[in-house]
């Protein structure tokens, strides 16, 4: 049984349909998106994949007979033995589960997390192949249903109650959607407000996802799976500040810490829908609704501007330079100056209808 769209008339999605057609053409060609005149940077970044680990990267050596590393070596062996048992028994555990098997031995959760990432990198396999899962914190809502590995059928809805992102993304199957687009929302508060304003229903068919800030692994895996399965236009809604831009970059291009899993995590086709620094000026958002950039913000912004993928995104660079020049940032909530539901009833619908993404 297919979903029945209840949103705008079909012509509303003309710009989205054209955008999707261009994305499908790129997918069919098997090519990355390389603007004319841009030099491809291959040492650490590939435009069609994102940030990747390079073969010449520095490796760490841990010796069993070294007093400085003997404990780390022992912990690696301990976790390897646990992973072996998980794989042999075809069962799964979270990183938290592993930590609590012997919290005194491990000392802290970060020690377990780092070792699991090291093992995954060393064996060149995704973490889920080790049968180690992360606890999900993300939410998904809208026009989507699927079956979990244990046979549980999940139907996401556009109601005020969202569905938790599954902890085993690899195991979900039979995904079905009629969605025209996927919207990634940076913050849980904004996500919940959009649900309360019935944005998801009024823009149906669509899917919304939030990682509640910096996304966890499962939220990123879900976005990637939805892209690989349906090749929907994917947009981000983040604060017009360096932190929001960082989060957007993680979804689109990945992070250095997880660069060895770039192929299974990044979606370079993602577009920046809002909040754009240029929107602040265009909508005449008053200065008292803005926030001055801190020293940390300036450092983060400079860091992002120096990254190799920004050379492939001249419009992003222009927006970031505009922020740097203004020395101001804005949260999505700044739009409430115009009206309490301006985001859901005016800003986002107009952006989607007229192609207001970069």
Give a description of the structure.
By secondary structure, the protein is of the alpha/beta class. It has helices at residues 14-29, 70-89, 95-101, 103-106, 109-123, 188-196, 199-202, 217-230, 242-253, 262-265, 277-282, 295-305, 314-326, 342-354, and strands spanning 45-46, 50-51, 93-94, 132-133, 139-142, 144-147, 153-156, 163-164, 173-176, 182-185, 207-210, 234-237, 271-274, 291-292, 328-329. Strands 8-5-11-10-12-13 form a six-stranded mixed beta sheet, sandwiched between helices. The chain has a three-stranded antiparallel beta sheet with strand order 7-6-9, with no helix packed on it. Strand 1 and strand 2 (50-51) form a beta hairpin. The longest helix is centred in the first third of the chain and has 20 residues, at 70-89. It is globular and about 65 Å long. The model is unreliable at 1-5 and 32-43 (pLDDT under 50).
């Amino acid at each position: 049984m297919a979903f029945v769209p209840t949103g705008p008339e079909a012509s509303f999605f003309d710009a989205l349909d054209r955008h999707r057609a261009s994305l499908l053409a790129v997918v069919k060609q098997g090519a990355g998106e390389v603007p004319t005149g841009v030099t491809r940077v291959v040492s650490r970044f590939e435009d069609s994949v994102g940030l990747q680990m390079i073969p010449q990267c520095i490796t760490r050596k841990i010796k069993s007979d070294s007093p400085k590393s003997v404990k780390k070596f022992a912990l690696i062996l301990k976790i390897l033995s646990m992973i072996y048992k998980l794989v042999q028994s075809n069962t799964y555990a979270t990183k938290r589960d592993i930590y609590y098997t012997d919290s005194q031995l491990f000392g802290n959760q970060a020690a377990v997390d780092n070792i699991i990432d090291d093992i995954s990198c060393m064996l060149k396999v995704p973490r889920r192949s080790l049968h180690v899962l992360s606890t999900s914190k993300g939410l998904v809502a809208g026009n989507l249903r699927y079956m979990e590995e244990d046979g549980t059928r999940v139907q996401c809805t556009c109601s005020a109650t969202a569905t938790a992102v599954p902890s085993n993304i690899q195991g979900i199957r039979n995904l079905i959607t009629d969605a025209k687009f996927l919207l990634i929302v940076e913050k849980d508060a904004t996500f919940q407000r959009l649900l309360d304003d019935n944005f998801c229903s009024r823009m149906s068919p669509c899917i919304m996802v939030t990682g509640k800030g910096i996304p966890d692994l499962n939220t990123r895996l879900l976005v990637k799976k939805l892209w690989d399965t349906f090749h929907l236009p994917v947009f981000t809604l983040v604060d017009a500040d360096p932190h929001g831009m960082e989060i957007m970059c993680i979804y689109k291009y990945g992070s250095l810490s997880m660069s060895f899993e770039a192929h299974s995590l990044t979606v370079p086709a993602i577009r920046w829908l809002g909040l754009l620094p240029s929107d602040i000026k265009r909508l005449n958002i008053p200065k008292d609704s803005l926030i001055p950039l801190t020293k940390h913000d300036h450092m983060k912004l400079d860091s992002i501007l120096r990254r190799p993928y920004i050379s492939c995104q001249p419009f992003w660079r222009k927006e970031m330079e505009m922020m740097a020049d203004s020395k101001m940032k804005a949260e999505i909530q700044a739009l409430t100056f115009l009206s309490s539901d301006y985001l859901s009833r005016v800003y986002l619908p107009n952006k989607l209808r007229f192609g207001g993404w970069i």
